[in-house]
Each structure stands twice: as structure tokens, then as C-alpha cells.
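Q: what sequence does this backbone want?
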């Protein structure tokens, strides 16, 4: 990629661095008793090891504890291999946490919007608040009134957020790089660790071993010279599959800006961008018990940073480059499942602003290892034991020297399911640089009422560790920072019914969360900004969604309405930045609503989505409420092995003039037209 993208210089926004069921019942009682004894023995050994580590804090005991966890999985070899046991379903208790509200987007839904970034997809397909700087600039999310750093982003179960910034730019994630997006609403720090206070987003890559060959190509053209091209090649057999995905996009992003009726309209400058990425994966399944996968995700982007509406010009730009390598091995047999994951992530962000002679280089690498063992003790009982180790390193110049953060964690989770009752208990113990944190418990309960209602309840403790910038940035880093921590509670009621093609659904939840030791950057006594534990934040609210759909033959219609009410308020007053008790968290709307309508007739599809976001408070200015409407037309075609679609998307159809981030205007009416072609040769 060239260094310069247009006549002005290259872009991106200033990084935070600048400122700081089970199968059937087992018939063999002896097998059941044996598994129960082994499971209890595992728990006893693990608890004993935890106590020893807590007493001695030695590296030897920590290593012994991790080995013990893996050794417990080896106890399954003591079973008589000639004994035939009915197959049980082994569930992932973290990804399917009982009592937690979830939003699941499958492969088909993602393929419909494959030309979107994850940020744009979530903005139009969910009622999650997406904070965007405009066009293809930085985008982050806020779930249930939490900050962007309190929403954990996972890739196949491993966290990919920057340990230096604590965030991830969702505009950099192409939608065609995932087969599934699993969103958990509300805190689940017990399952995933630091950063899952508001929720988690898990991007998954899966493979179909029945596929002989699949070739796909898609291209789209849009307003502001927006070009997107993407492709996929999958080939293999019942034992081996290779999947290659590529994505390329560029544009000028020079949309028209109307800052004020008294000021002439002008086009945004210094806003070009280019991005290219490849995701390669190999999957090997020698038999029904083993599944091995290797992933490599390499991507680079350059984005110019346009001036705000109060600036005359800008030459700032940012470059983002990363590679993410991951290897997974999963072993499944009868009631047991062992999964190991290893990852090596390396990332660099380079922000430069020649006009003020500013250069900020942010780089890091992470080594991750996770061991996960699951056991179906009985058709109603399931146990999961997990061990996670993360080593983050960064040698940013602003730190003065290379800094490291070593995190390890143990998780024990248990679930009980009987008829329409489900219960889950879990506890996590985590230590950072040999210092133990308080245990993090979780309790989730789910109860079916009648045939159509489901009641949910969960209580959990939450936490978020300070980022490397918070700790070591010079000046302003604070090595004495405490982790953000607190408790969250959630109640939910879901309803669903289907009669003669008509489907009704209702989901309503209440949440409450109190977080203390909130980390903020504020002026210190030494005349510079410093990271401090200076506030408490209380969040509460409701999330509601009602839906209806009807399907008959080649006709279908669906609609849904959703509404969020969120109060996320400061509990302590500050002089600077000026914050009063009861003030709403910055960039956190109190009201947010969305309406979706879909009509499908003989394959022709029309979709309309309308979003309204209430007034929010920015760092300096108040941001007025806004509403935006988007229209999408598509028509699929299918000729044997060849299929595809053509589509037209019109965003902001009413040409609303609005901002999400103060002084950063959003595009007016813009269009995207494209086509996607797919060839498949399936095994019979």
C-alpha cells in the first residue's frame, strides 16, 4: 500500500495514546458412578492446588496448577474403552451462559450484509449503540451503558482487543470474515475475564466438511468512490478443508458537509482510506473425535483523518497493521471434550499529524493459551474447567521501556438442566503479575413457564483491568491503579409462539450495575492529565424487543421494534473535567429505538430500517438526537451449483444532517450497489 492516499496526506482518528441437552440418560450406573468419582477427584485436586498457589504464590505451583487441569482431562483414559455409552451433548457453558440474553447472527445473515464492516452491520441489525466518527473512521460499541473498553471482542474464543488501548475498531473487521457472531448482553466477567462488563462479541469461524469446492466473488460500488471486493475459496474433503477469504476496499469519503445554514456547504477533505486483508484457515479432522484448525488473519489499512467542523484543514493520518495467528485442537469422545487454543497476535498503529509535529506509535503483541475441559457427568449435570494464560508486551516509546503484563486465570463452571429448568454456577480466579484478584462468581437461572414463556435471572461480579497505557504512559500513567470492579444483576422475560406460519416474539430485560474505581484521565496536581480511579458509575435500564413474522409459500413478511432505556450516571462530582453527581456517561444515549420491516415475494426482498437515538453529551458539546432511515433491495438467483444475488442499499434515505461524535459529521444520503456470485460443488 502506498503511503499517500490522496492529495492531502493519509488518516484515522487520534488513538487514546494522545491523551491520556442432553442426550439420553446413561444406562450404566457403574459408568455414572465412575465418572462422578473422577469429576469429584478433579475438583478436589484443583481446589487443593488453588489453595497451595494462594498460600505460596510460587511460579512452580502456578505451573503445577495448569498441568493439573490438563491432567484431569487424562483421567478419561481410565474408562473401559469397550463400554458403549449413549452419546451426550457437551455444551460450551461460556458461549451459552444460562440466564444471559444473547443475539446470534448466523452465516446466512452475515452473507446478506457481507459488504458491511462489523460496525455498520451491528448499527443496522441490532439495537446496540455504535459510536462512529463518520464514514469509515473509528467505530466502537457500548452495551447496556458500558464504555467501549468494557465490551470484550473475541475471535474464536480468544480476546483480540488492544491491551494498550483497551478497545478495538470494529470498522476494521470485514463481515465476510466470520460465519457467526455471538453477542452476549450484560456482564459475564466470570466466563471471559477482564473487559466483559457490558457484554461480549464473539466472532466465529466454522467449516463444512461436506464441501468439495466453493468459489465466491463479490464486488460493490458506492458513493464517494467506495469500492469493495471480496472473495472466498474453499476446497477439501471429509477430512481436510482449506478456506481462503480476502477483502479489499477503498474510497475518498468526501461527502458533503452542511455545518450551519449561514455557512456554505463544502466537501470533506483528507478522508480517503484503503484496507486489504486475508484470512486463511486449514481444518483437519482425521476421525470423529479430533478436530484441528489453524488460522492466519493478516490485514493492513491506511486512513486519513479529516478535519472537524471547527478546523480549517488536516493532514493527519493513521496506519493500522496486524497479524493474528491461532491454532485449535478439539477432542470429543462420549461425555468428554477437551479443547486447546493457542494464539499469537501482533498489532501496530501509527498516528501522525504533520501540522502539529505529532507522531504516536502504538504497538503490542500477545501470546495466549487456553485449555478447556468439559464433562457431561449426567444428562442433567455438566462441568467445565478452563485455564487461560495471556502475556501482553509493548515497547512503546511513551512507556520509557518495554512493559509486560502476565495474566492467568482458572474457571470452574457447573450447569444443571431438567425439563425447562436450567441453572449455572461458575467462579473465576485470576491473577495479574503474580497478584491475585478477588474471585469472580456468576449465577444464572432460567425457567420455562408454560409453553411460551421463559424467565431469566443472573447475578455476577464484574471487573476490568487497567490498560498498559493507563499504567505506564509517560506522563500520566499510574502504576497504582485498581481494577474497575462491581456487581451486576439482570432479569429477563421472553415469549415466543408460532401458529400456522405466524410467529410472535417478545424479549424484555432489566439490568442494574454498580462499578467502582472507574478509571478516568483527568488533570493532576502536576499540570498534566493522569489516569485515576476517581469515580463510581451506576448503570440501570431496560431493553425491549417485540417481533412478528408470517411465512407462506414464497411470501414472507417480518417486522420488529426495539427500545432501550439506559441511565449510566456518575456517583461522584469532579471539578475538572466538570462532572456533577447524576450526570450521564459521555456518548451514552438515554433513549434508543429501532424499527425493522422486511418483505420477501418470490425472492425479491425489500428491507427498511429506521433508527432513532436520543440526545447525548459529548466531551465539549451536547449532541442532539437524530433519526436515520435505510432501505435495502436484493434479488437472489439460483441455477444449480451457481447462486448469488444483486443488491442496492440506500443509507440515510432522508438525508439527515447529524453527528454521533461531536464535530464529526456523518454522511448524507449514500448508495451501495453490488453483486455476489457463489459456486458450490457439494458431496453427495
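A:
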Amino acid at each position: 500500500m502506498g503511503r499517500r492516499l490522496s492529495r492531502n496526506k493519509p488518516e484515522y482518528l487520534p488513538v487514546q495514546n494522545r491523551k491520556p441437552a442432553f442426550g439420553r440418560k446413561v444406562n450404566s450406573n457403574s459408568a455414572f458412578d465412575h465418572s462422578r468419582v473422577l469429576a469429584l477427584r478433579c475438583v478436589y485436586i484443583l481446589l487443593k492446588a488453588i489453595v497451595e498457589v494462594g498460600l505460596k504464590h510460587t511460579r512452580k505451583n502456578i505451573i503445577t496448577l495448569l498441568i493439573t487441569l490438563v491432567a484431569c482431562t487424562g483421567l478419561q483414559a481410565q474408562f473401559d474403552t469397550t463400554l458403549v455409552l449413549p452419546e451426550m451433548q457437551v455444551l460450551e457453558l461460556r458461549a451459552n451462559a444460562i440466564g444471559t440474553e444473547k443475539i446470534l447472527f448466523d452465516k446466512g445473515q452475515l452473507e446478506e450484509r457481507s459488504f458491511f464492516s462489523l460496525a455498520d452491520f451491528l448499527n443496522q441489525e441490532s439495537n446496540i449503540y455504535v459510536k462512529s466518527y463518520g464514514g469509515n473512521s473509528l467505530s466502537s460499541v457500548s452495551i447496556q451503558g458500558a464504555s467501549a473498553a468494557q465490551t470484550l471482542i473475541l475471535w474464536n474464543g480468544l480476546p483480540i482487543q488492544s491491551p494498550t488501548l483497551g478497545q478495538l475498531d470494529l470498522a476494521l473487521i470485514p463481515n465476510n470474515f466470520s460465519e457467526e457472531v455471538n453477542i452476549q448482553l450484560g456482564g459475564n466477567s466470570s466466563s471471559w475475564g477482564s473487559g466483559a462488563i457490558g457484554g461480549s462479541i464473539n466472532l466465529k469461524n466454522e467449516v463444512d466438511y461436506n464441501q468439495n469446492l466453493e468459489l465466491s466473488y463479490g464486488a460493490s460500488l458506492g458513493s464517494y468512490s467506495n469500492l469493495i471486493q471480496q472473495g472466498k475459496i474453499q476446497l477439501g474433503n471429509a477430512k481436510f478443508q482449506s478456506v481462503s477469504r480476502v477483502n479489499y476496499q477503498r474510497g475518498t469519503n468526501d461527502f458533503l458537509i452542511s455545518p450551519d445554514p449561514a455557512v456554505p456547504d463544502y466537501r470533506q477533505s483528507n478522508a480517503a482510506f484503503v484496507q486489504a486483508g486475508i484470512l486463511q484457515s486449514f481444518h483437519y479432522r482425521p476421525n470423529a473425535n479430533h478436530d484441528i484448525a489453524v488460522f492466519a488473519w493478516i490485514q493492513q489499512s491506511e486512513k486519513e483523518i479529516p478535519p472537524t467542523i471547527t478546523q480549517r484543514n488536516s493532514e493527519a493520518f493513521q496506519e493500522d497493521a496486524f497479524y493474528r495467528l491461532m491454532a485449535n485442537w478439539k477432542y470429543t469422545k462420549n461425555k468428554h471434550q477437551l479443547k486447546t487454543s493457542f494464539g499469537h497476535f501482533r498489532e501496530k498503529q501509527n498516528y501522525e499529524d504533520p501540522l502539529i509535529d505529532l507522531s504516536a506509535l502504538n504497538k503490542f503483541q500477545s501470546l495466549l493459551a487456553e485449555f478447556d475441559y468439559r464433562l457431561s457427568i449426567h444428562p442433567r449435570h455438566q462441568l467445565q474447567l478452563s485455564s487461560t494464560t495471556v502475556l501482553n508486551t509493548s515497547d512503546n516509546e511513551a512507556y520509557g521501556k518495554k512493559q509486560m503484563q502476565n495474566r492467568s486465570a482458572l474457571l470452574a463452571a457447573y450447569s444443571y438442566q431438567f425439563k425447562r429448568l436450567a441453572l449455572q454456577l461458575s467462579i473465576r480466579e485470576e491473577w495479574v503479575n503474580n497478584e491475585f484478584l478477588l474471585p469472580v462468581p456468576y449465577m444464572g437461572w432460567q425457567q420455562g413457564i408454560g409453553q411460551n414463556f421463559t424467565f431469566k435471572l443472573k447475578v455476577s461480579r464484574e471487573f476490568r483491568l487497567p490498560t498498559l497505557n493507563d499504567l505506564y504512559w509517560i506522563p500520566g500513567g499510574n502504576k497504582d491503579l485498581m481494577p474497575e470492579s462491581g456487581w451486576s444483576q439482570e432479569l429477563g422475560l421472553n415469549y415466543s409462539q408460532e401458529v400456522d406460519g405466524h410467529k410472535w416474539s417478545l424479549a424484555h430485560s432489566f439490568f442494574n450495575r454498580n462499578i467502582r474505581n472507574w478509571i478516568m484521565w483527568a488533570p493532576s496536581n502536576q499540570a498534566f492529565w493522569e489516569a485515576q480511579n476517581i469515580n463510581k458509575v451506576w448503570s440501570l435500564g431496560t431493553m425491549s424487543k417485540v417481533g412478528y413474522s408470517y411465512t407462506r409459500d414464497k411470501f414472507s413478511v417480518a417486522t420488529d421494534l426495539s427500545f432501550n432505556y439506559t441511565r449510566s450516571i456518575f456517583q461522584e462530582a469532579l471539578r475538572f473535567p466538570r462532572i456533577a453527581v447524576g450526570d450521564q456517561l459521555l456518548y451514552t444515549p438515554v433513549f434508543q429505538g429501532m424499527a425493522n420491516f422486511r418483505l420477501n415475494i418470490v425472492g425479491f426482498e425489500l428491507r427498511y430500517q429506521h433508527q432513532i437515538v436520543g440526545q447525548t453529551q459529548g466531551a465539549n458539546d451536547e449532541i442532539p438526537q437524530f433519526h436515520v432511515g435505510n432501505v435495502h433491495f436484493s434479488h437472489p438467483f439460483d441455477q444449480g451449483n451457481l447462486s448469488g444475488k444483486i443488491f442496492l442499499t440506500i443509507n440515510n434515505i432522508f438525508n439527515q444532517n447529524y453527528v454521533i461524535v461531536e464535530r464529526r459529521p456523518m454522511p448524507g444520503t449514500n448508495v451501495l450497489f453490488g453483486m455476489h456470485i457463489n459456486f458450490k460443488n457439494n458431496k453427495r
